[in-house]
């Protein structure tokens, strides 16, 4: 289900101004070879050879002066995560008419 078409849709939904991951690839860099990158990722997903990259760890200052850790995935990883999220969102939206969640489940919406 996570094919090249869905990856292209996912690309449109990504925040292109987000900080790059551990590989240093920005959205502008990725866009230069967008078609080739999408094809390569799609092939690796189809062949089950896609592996998530390490996550870059940075620390951002809190209001109290302490620092909070933040993980920055690579753009490729963000793209695959967004595609997976779209698949799951479509699936769960199709079930919204049925009671698949308990009353105390997060996101429960009773039928009315």
Broad shape: flat
Termini Cα gap: 32 Å
How is the main sheet built?
2 strands, antiparallel
Low-confidence stretches: none
What class, by secondary structure content? mainly alpha
In round numbers, the mean pLDDT is 89
Query: Order of SSEs, N→C?
Result: HHHEEH
User: Number of helical segments?
Assistant: 4
Radius of gyration: 18 Å
Structure summary, number of beta strands: 2
Give the strand order of the largest sheet, numbering strands 1, 2, ... along the chain. Answer: 1-2
Strand content: 5-15%
Helical residue percent band: 40-55%
What is the secondary structure topology, with strand pairs?
Elements: H1 4-13, H2 27-32, H3 34-46, E1 56-61, E2 67-72, H4 75-94
Question: How would you describe this structure to a colleague?
Answer:
This protein has 112 residues and is mainly α. 44% of the residues lie in helices and 11% in strands. The chain has helices spanning 4-13, 27-32, 34-46, 75-94; strands at residues 56-61, 67-72. It has a two-stranded antiparallel ribbon with strand order 1-2. A hairpin with a 5-residue loop joins strand 1 and strand 2. The radius of gyration is 18 Å and the shape is flat. It starts with a helix and ends in an 18-residue tail after the last helix.
């Amino acid at each position: 289900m996570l094919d090249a078409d869905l990856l292209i849709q996912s690309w449109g939904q990504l925040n292109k101004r987000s900080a790059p991951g551990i590989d240093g690839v920005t959205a502008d860099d990725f866009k230069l070879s967008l078609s080739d990158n999408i094809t390569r990722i799609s092939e690796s997903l189809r062949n089950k050879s896609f592996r998530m990259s390490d996550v870059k760890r940075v620390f951002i200052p809190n209001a109290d002066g302490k620092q909070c850790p933040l993980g920055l995935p690579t753009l490729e990883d963000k793209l695959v995560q967004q595609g997976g999220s779209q698949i799951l969102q479509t699936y769960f939206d199709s079930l919204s008419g049925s009671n698949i969640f308990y009353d105390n489940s997060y996101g429960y919406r009773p039928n009315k």
